[in-house]
Amino acid sequence: GQKPNAGDACTVGFAEAETTVLECAGTIQLKVIASRAAARPFEVGYTTEEGTARNGVRFRHSDGVVVFDTGQTERTIDVQVIDDDSWQSDEYFFVRLLEPGGGALASPRPNMPPMKLGVAKTRITVLNDDMPGTLSFDVDEAYTHEGMRVTLGVLRTQGTVGRISCKYKTSDGGAVAGRDFEEVNGMLVFEDGELFKTLEVPILRSEAHDVEDDESFRVVLFDPSPGVKFGGTTDEDGTRSFCDVVITATKEIPFCRRVMRKCVNRDLTL
């Protein structure tokens, strides 16, 4: 018969070199296409390969063959992705087409051009769909006075999946740690589904305190678990969240002072 011309080889490969899938999808279908219809059935092998995504954790290993029947130019490979209830960063794995013998794919019949691989490897990125949440203080400003303990609430919103944490610390302003308040630092841990935590800062009595002036300091949330965001008052890149604590110069009950300030801001009078 007529000898095949290598330039007329039928190309078989993935339709896309990269694709993404939500982990909740369960299965992703990958298209494998041939550059022209087959005159008789032929097959090509495939296998999954780990990247940052691990077999049994983010996807299930699969291997086998894709069969093109006579006249077909498109087939699909189904690969299972694994959904879980914990937050993980986006990860990827690969599916590779196998080239028998390290050369061109076997021709469907002797008088047809040889088959060759086109896009032989595709990368699948598994997108996480479990939201661990956004952490923020329940107020932007809190008011207190000497000798009290100020309690600040931290809210978890926009997702409650998994065990998360962030660090907190006090930061000097006009009020200084060791003179006006006790320096505190630590870690807040939210268990799966937990929505609210509190932290306390003791306010010191100071003989040197100027009773005419309010003084303030900040409590800062920082270093969150992977995937956790900060809300409320944050820095420009959103890596820290703040609450300003004002130590009032008067002996008013702090709650009353706080309500009055809110009412004034709304153009109301008491």
From TrEMBL:
<dbReference type="InterPro" id="IPR051171">
    <property type="entry name" value="CaCA"/>
</dbReference>
<protein>
    <recommendedName>
        <fullName>Calx-beta domain-containing protein</fullName>
    </recommendedName>
</protein>
<feature type="domain" description="Calx-beta">
    <location>
        <begin position="1"/>
        <end position="98"/>
    </location>
</feature>
<dbReference type="GO" id="GO:0005432">
    <property type="term" value="F:calcium:sodium antiporter activity"/>
</dbReference>
<feature type="domain" description="Calx-beta">
    <location>
        <begin position="122"/>
        <end position="222"/>
    </location>
</feature>
<dbReference type="GO" id="GO:0007154">
    <property type="term" value="P:cell communication"/>
</dbReference>
<dbReference type="Pfam" id="PF03160">
    <property type="entry name" value="Calx-beta"/>
</dbReference>
<keyword id="KW-0406">Ion transport</keyword>
<dbReference type="GO" id="GO:0016020">
    <property type="term" value="C:membrane"/>
</dbReference>
<dbReference type="InterPro" id="IPR003644">
    <property type="entry name" value="Calx_beta"/>
</dbReference>
<keyword id="KW-0106">Calcium</keyword>
<keyword id="KW-0732">Signal</keyword>
<keyword id="KW-0813">Transport</keyword>
<keyword id="KW-0677">Repeat</keyword>
<dbReference type="GO" id="GO:0098703">
    <property type="term" value="P:calcium ion import across plasma membrane"/>
</dbReference>
<dbReference type="InterPro" id="IPR038081">
    <property type="entry name" value="CalX-like_sf"/>
</dbReference>
